[in-house]
Amino acid sequence: MDVKDVVRIFRFISIALYLVIIVITVILGAVALYLAIRDIASLMPFSSISDLKILSALSAVFLVVIALEFVDMFLEYIRSGTVVVDLVLAVVLTAISRELLLYIASPSGSLDYGILLVMSILILALAYWLVNRAKAISHTS
What we know:
This protein is mostly helical. Helix content is 85%, strand content 0%. The protein has helices at 3-41, 51-80, 85-105, 111-140. The mean pLDDT is 90.
């Protein structure tokens, strides 16, 4: 067995594991979708809507988006065989944005943590923009 065969076997194992992870992520995404629908349905008696209920529903929707972005990221990795940095940044940016929503919904959090979340979002947004700008420049050259 030469090196190419070993690499091919490990690549196959890697793809199989990623497919298992994708299935698990889809299942968790479906559960998150159920939770989002439940939270949105709980808003229906419009007389009892509060900002905390809206933030909770948005947080649940963000979970669905994060699951979808994970699946997209894993599929792209399987297709290209490389980590797609802008997709990773998008997932992390969405997750930290969700965390900021949860922080806003619970006033008991420390101010330092809120500042850390906001700064993280700004830095990740800048990194995302720079990666996409670099991609655009490399495609035009």
